[in-house]
Amino acid sequence: MPRPSCGRVMLVLAQLITFICMIGTFLLLAAALKLPAALATAGAATVGLAVSGNIGSLYHLIEGAFGYFDVILIIAMAMVFMAALEAAGILEEISYRITRRLGDKPLLLSLASMLLVMLPGMLTGSSTAAAMTTGRFVLPVLVGAGIAPARAGAFVALGSIIGMIAPPVNVPVMIIGSGIDMPYVGFDLPLLFLALPAAVAVSIWAAAGAKKDRPGKKPGAGSAPFVPASDVERISGIKVFIPILALVVMMFAVRLSNGSIPDPGIPFMFAVGALLAMVCGRRIKLWDTVVRGIGMAMPVMGVLVGAGMFVQVMTLTGVRGLLVTSALDIPRAWIFVAAAVALPVFGAISAYASSSVMGVPILLALLGNNEIVTAAALSMLASIGDLLPPIAIVPSLISQSSGEGTDYRSALLRQATVPILLLVLWAFAVLKWAPAIGKLL
Amino acid sequence: MTYFKLATASWLTPLYLLMLAVTVVAVAVNILREEKLSAQIVGGMVLIPLVLRLLLVK
After folding, report:
1. Per residue in A386-431, pLDDT tens?
2. Best residue in B10, B25, B29, B42 to probe A by mutation, most A CBs within 10 Å?
3. Taking the CA atoms of chain A, what radius of gyration do you get in angstroms?
4. pLDDT value at position A215?
5. Chain B within 8 Å of A411 (Cβ-Cβ)?
6. CA A232 from chain center: how many Å?
């Protein structure tokens, strides 16, 4: 067996030192100094440039900032759409109708609530969007239906993550796909296969909790603390569904037309949906809504800019190649285990960064394992990181918006522990049997 | 003149540039309203690719 040359060993050592410095800086900034994940990734990229002796090539940071530009624009417009739905009272109206119709049927209520929580995540690919919009409306509805606050919070957190994974928009898959030049095509069924059973299982878990938490009390009967809009503020008829329906029709029409309808792009569809929301709901201030939507999107857009810089520097310094070759050297059976552990753990800092840094090498190591189903499963593992400490971004947001106090986040995380483990197992199973699942779909 | 040619390359390009311009202004407004320095820096980071693409520099 030929021995590696001294130069080769030195090169690998230099790449390893660069990688350790980048990860160390990232952890220091994100976990110890509690800086936003966007700054942590950008800071780690800058340190990587310095350590590798490329500090003069700062233009690589600008180059990297464009890495996820398409996704940034999708998230910006999707958040404007969600802000328009919220400001126009459409989300509130849909929540009210669900409560009124299904308040005394816990299973149906939790299934409908799950769909409502998932919707923003499905449309924006961001779990924080779901937690910050429909999650806020659904939480009191569930508590009113007899579900303990911690379990209701866990339900919203899990629903936000499942929505992030579900089609039509899954940002982690887009990030992983862009790493190996795989277009975002053909992912709808695999993502649905991953998300649907998880959504149903979590809904059943929540509904079972409703019966257990308040024995003898008819769940939801007249106890919902959710305050419905007054009659003056109510939106009548099917008008309330028009913006969401229009968006779904546009998305499906383009996909099913086989090119006969020109594809205007997802950001354009969201922009049209936002304009429709402004017409179909209560009168709103257009510019204020746009500013609010972009304000909600800014942390996520920042993470994507930072992740782009991080990946650019990793590519420039050869660290990315080192990760890929190292991943290829791991015995195949262990790659699945490594994916199930590394992606959620790294995702605890940022699901998007985890998709990019860990997802791409693991997908490359699993080439031939049905890449589409594999990428979908990897996206689920990375997304689960949004639920995990130290940052636990989604539980933290739910805790903040519920106003239940500091212990609420810990209680929520304790409730969500078993479902999170089951979600990881589910993603692991799909990853392991991706070729067979790919044939089924 | 070159900018105008590029900006009207297809029927969608001006629409996307308009969306981009709105986003750039909205990000700038959010930066000015934001009180935390770290959030302002994040906003500045986000502005870099948006402005460069709006100017069709890259």
Report:
1. 898 866 878 877 887 776 766 888 899 999 999 999 999 999 999 9
2. B42
3. 22
4. 46
5. no
6. 36
Q: What token pair was written down for A55?
A: 């500090």
Select the residue from A305, A310, A352 to test the B interface by mutation, using most B Cβ atoms within 10 A. Answer: A305
CA distance to partner chain A, nearest, from residue B12 (Å)? 7
Q: Does A252 touch chain B (CB under 8 A)?
A: no
Cα-only R_g, chain B: 13
Interface ipTM: 0.96
Across chain A, mean pLDDT equals 85
Q: Which of A117, A116, A85, A73 is nearest to A294 (CA)?
A: A73
Positive or negative torsion for Cα A279, A282, A288, A293: negative
